[in-house]
Amino acid sequence: MPIYGSNEFDPSVTNIHTHSYYCGHGIGKLRDYVDVAKREGLKVLGFSEHCPTPTNRWSGSRMSFNKLEQYLNQCRDLQATNSDIIILTGLECDYEPKEHNWYKEYLIDSGRVDYLIAGVHYLTTDSYTDRYIQLFPNDKKALHLYTDNYIKILESGLFKIGVHPDIFGRFYDDWDDEAKACSISILECATSLQIPLEINGDGLNKRTITTKKGKRLMYPLIDFWELSREYPIKVVTNSDAHRPENVKSQLLNGISYAQNLGIGLSPIHIETSIEGKLNINFR
To answer: Distance between CA 48 and CA 91 in Å, rounded?
Structure first.
C-alpha cells in the first residue's frame, strides 16, 4: 500500500506494463502476477490491462466494458492489502480523440486509475476500419498513418508513457528514409513533451521476420533505438507480461537490450499525498 511521501525506484525493480486474463489473450489472475513480482524482488508493479471503451470498440483484444469496474476494484484491493510492494492501477489505451474527455474525466480525474499508457494497435483508413497492426499493409501510407496516430497519443497529455513506439516494425519491414523520417517525428515529439518511450520486453520474446536485410525482431526495432541515442529522450522498459512468469524475466531482457545499446533508463518517481493520491513521473 502506498505510503505518504516521495520515492524513486530503479528500473530493475519496476514494471508498469502488465496484462492478465482480463484482456482475453493473457493468462493468470492479478494475484498471480503480484505473487511472482514479490517473489522476484519487484518494488513497483503496475497493472495496465487493455482499456475498453463505452462502445466496446476493439473488443477483439480488450476486456468487455462491463468488466472494467471489477478489474479496477481488484487492483485497488491488491493495492490496499500488500504492504511490501506498491501496486499501481492503470490501463493501456488505444487513443481515440472523440473519447478524450472520457479518458480524462472518468478514468484520470475521478481517481479510478493511477496512470494511463498508450500505443497504436489498430488503424482506420478509407479502405478498412480498426485493422490490427500485424495486418497493416507494408506501405508508406500505413507507416505515416501510424506515425500520425502515435503523435496524437503523445500530444494528448493523457498518458505517462508511449509504449512500443517502434511496433510499426511488425508491418513495415524496411529501414529506409521513410521509416527514419517517421521515427524522427516520434522521437522529436517525445523529446519536446518529455514523455518517456518504452523498450518493450515482450517484443524480445516474439518471432523474427524476414526482411530484405535478413531476419530481425519485429520490435524492438534496433534502428529506431540506435537513432534515439541522438535525442535527450526519456526511455523506460517494461515486461508487457501476458503471463505471470514473464513479469521479471521480460523486464530484465529489456534492461539488457538498453544496456547493450548504451541507452540509459529513467527511474520511476512516485509521490503519495496524505489523501493517498499517487503522482507518477519519470526522471
So the answer is: 4
Place of cell 481488484: 74
* DSSP letter, residue 67: G
Cα distances (Å, whole numbers) of residue 139 to 4, 25, 57: 50, 28, 25
Residues 237-250: pLDDT tens digits?
999 999 999 999 99
Instruction: Return d(Cα 154, Cα 181) in angstroms, integer.
Output: 17
- pTM listed for this prediction: 0.95
Question: Which tens digits make up the pLDDT trace of 3-27?
Answer: 567 899 999 999 999 999 998 888 9
SS3 209: strand
Cβ pair 240, 17 in contact under 8 A: yes
Sheet holding 5-9, edge to edge: 5-9, 268-272, 278-282
Element at 48 (helix H, strand E): strand 44-50
Interatomic CA distance for residues 148 and 104, integer angstroms: 21
Cα–Cα distances in Å, from 97 out to 24, 149, 152, 261? 25, 10, 8, 35
